[in-house]
Design brief:
- With about 425 residues, this protein is an alpha/beta fold.
- Helices cover about 35% and strands about 20% of the residues.
- The protein has 14 helices and 17 strands.
- Strands 1, 2, 3, 4, 5, 15, 16 and 17 form an 8-stranded mixed β-sheet that branches. Strands 11-12-13-14 form a 4-stranded parallel β-sheet.
- Helix 7 packs parallel to helix 8 and helix 9 runs antiparallel to helix 10.
- The longest helix is centred in the last third of the chain and has 24 residues.
C-alpha cells in the first residue's frame, strides 16, 4: 500500500513532515518520501487528503481480560471473560491503540487469536499473572471466607490465572519462571498496597527485599525487566533498589524517589486521567473502601507530575481501565488530562515513541521484534492513525474517537470512517 498526501508526526519531533508519501511493504514501512510513488495496482493507494498521520498509539498499562468489575469477574468462567475481552480488544483499535502492554491478566489466548487475525485487537505485550504476596494487591478474594491455602482457591478471578499469590523466594522464582514459560515479555509484581483491592492498605510494603531481588534476577536472566505496582515512596524506594525498571502509578512519589528514578533510568507509567475519574466517582467501583483509596491516589498524582517534569523522568501513557467495554471507553480521557500537565507534544511522545522504547526493554523476549513501535520511520511497523489535525499540536482531539478517522495495524486498515 501507498499512503499519499499526508503530514507526518513521527512520534518524536514537533515539526511535521509535510506533503509526504509512505510506502508499506508487508507490515513495515519501506519508504517515506515527498516524491510520487507508483504502486503495482491503483487500489493500493490511500489518499490521506493532507491530514496528519501519526504512529499507532501505545497504552502501557492495560488489563485487557478484565472486562467487568471484580465482583462480576469472580463469578465468571474463563471463556466468558475471554469473549468479553474480544470486545474490549476491538475497542482499543477503534480508539487508535495498536499496541498495549498487559500488566496483569490471562491474555495468552487472546494475544494468539489477535496475532492470527482471528479477532481484531492490538498487539499485546503480556505479563501474565501479576505476582503478589498473600494479603497483597493481587489477593483479590472478595471476602475473608474465601480460601487460598495453596491447594484450594475459592476465587475464580484468581484461579483463572489473572493474578497469583506467592510467598517466599522459592515460590517467587517458580511463579516468575512460569510466566516466562507461558510467554511473558515482562514480569509484573505488586510491590505495595492498591486502591482496587479490599484488604491491603495503600501504605503497605509488599514482598521482602529478598523476594523482589529474586524476581528481578529471574527476569534479568531472561533478558527482560520487572514492572511494579506501587503508590507510596517507601515501597517505591525498595523496588528501585531491588532493580525494578518501571513503576506503575507512583501516585505519592517523593522528591527523593523522583531523583532515584532519574539517576537509575527507571520508567514511570502513571494514570492521570483515570485517577481523576475515579476520584470523582465517575467510574463504578465495588465498595466504599475502594472509592476512598482512589480519591487519595488522584490527589497524589498532581504532585507526581511536577516531579516528572522537574527530573525529566521517562514516562509512558497508561490508562489502567478495568470494567465493561463502556468503562474502557474512558481510556481517551487521559489525553486532555495529560495535555494540561505535560503539553500536547510530550503527551503524544508518551503515547507513541516513549511507549515503543519501553516495550523494547523486553529484548530477547520481545513479542514483535522485527520493527520499531511508536514511530514513523523506515523499517518500523506500519501502525498508524489518521486525524484531520495534528494531535502533537492539540492532544485534545484524541479525546473523541470519532476524530481518529483511520487506523492501520501491520499495514492493514482496521478502521476507516473517512
Amino acid at each position: 500500500m501507498i499512503i499519499k498526501n499526508v503530514n507526518i508526526f513521527d512520534g518524536i519531533n514537533q515539526e511535521l513532515k509535510k506533503n509526504m508519501n509512505v510506502k508499506v511493504t508487508d507490515n513495515t514501512i519501506e519508504k517515506i518520501t515527498p516524491e510520487t510513488l507508483t504502486p503495482a495496482k491503483e487500489e493500493e493507494i490511500f489518499d490521506g487528503k493532507g491530514y496528519t498521520l501519526s504512529p499507532g498509539l501505545i497504552d502501557c498499562h492495560v488489563h485487557i481480560m478484565l472486562a467487568d468489575g471484580f465482583k462480576n469477574l469472580d463469578s465468571m468462567e474463563i471463556d466468558e471473560a475471554a469473549i468479553r475481552a474480544t470486545i474490549v480488544a476491538k475497542g482499543f483499535i477503534e480508539r487508535g491503540f495498536t499496541t498495549v502492554r498487559d500488566v496483569g491478566g490471562y491474555s495468552w489466548g487472546l494475544k494468539a487469536t489477535i496475532d492470527q487475525d482471528i479477532v481484531v485487537g492490538p498487539r499485546i505485550y503480556p505479563s501474565g499473572a501479576a505476582l503478589s504476596q498473600t494479603a497483597g494487591h493481587s489477593d483479590y478474594r472478595q471476602n475473608r471466607a474465601q480460601r487460598n491455602d495453596g491447594t484450594t482457591m475459592d476465587s475464580p478471578l484468581m484461579r483463572q490465572g489473572h493474578m497469583v499469590t506467592v510467598d517466599g523466594v522459592p515460590e517467587c522464582l517458580k511463579a516468575a519462571r512460569q510466566q516466562l514459560f507461558k510467554g511473558a515479555t515482562q514480569i509484573k509484581v505488586m510491590g505495595g498496597g492498591g486502591a482496587s483491592s479490599l484488604w491491603d492498605p495503600l501504605d503497605t510494603i509488599q514482598f521482602t527485599r529478598a523476594e523482589l531481588e529474586a524476581i528481578v534476577e529471574t527476569a534479568t536472566n531472561y533478558g527482560t525487566y520487572v514492572c511494579s505496582h506501587l503508590h507510596v515512596s517507601p515501597a517505591m524506594k525498595i523496588a528501585i533498589e531491588a532493580g525494578v525498571k518501571c513503576i506503575e502509578h507512583g501516585s505519592e512519589m517523593s522528591e527523593e524517589v523522583a531523583k532515584m528514578m532519574a539517576e537509575k533510568d527507571v520508567w514511570l507509567c502513571s494514570q492521570y486521567g483515570t485517577a481523576g475519574l475515579l476520584a470523582e466517582r465517575k467510574i463504578p467501583l465495588d465498595s466504599e473502601i475502594m472509592y476512598q483509596k482512589t480519591e487519595r491516589v488522584g490527589k497524589g498524582l498532581i504532585k507526581n507530575a511536577e516531579w516528572v517534569k522537574k527530573y525529566k523522568i521517562r514516562s509512558v501513557f497508561g490508562s489502567d481501565m478495568i470494567g465493561t467495554p463502556e468503562v474502557h471507553e474512558n481510556q481517551l480521557m487521559e489525553f486532555p488530562t495529560r495535555k494540561n500537565l505535560f503539553g500536547s507534544l510530550e503527551t503524544m511522545r508518551q503515547a507513541t515513541s516513549n511507549g515503543g522504547e519501553l516495550l523494547k526493554l523486553s529484548t530477547i523476549l520481545d513479542a514483535y521484534p522485527l520493527g520499531e513501535l511508536g514511530v514513523i520511520k523506515e523499517g518500523a511497523y506500519a501502525d498508524f492513525i489518521l486525524t484531520k489535525d495534528a494531535p502533537s499540536e492539540d492532544a485534545n482531539i484524541l479525546s473523541d474517537k470519532d476524530n481518529i478517522l483511520v487506523v492501520w495495524k501491520d499495514g492493514k486498515i482496521l478502521k476507516n470512517i473517512m
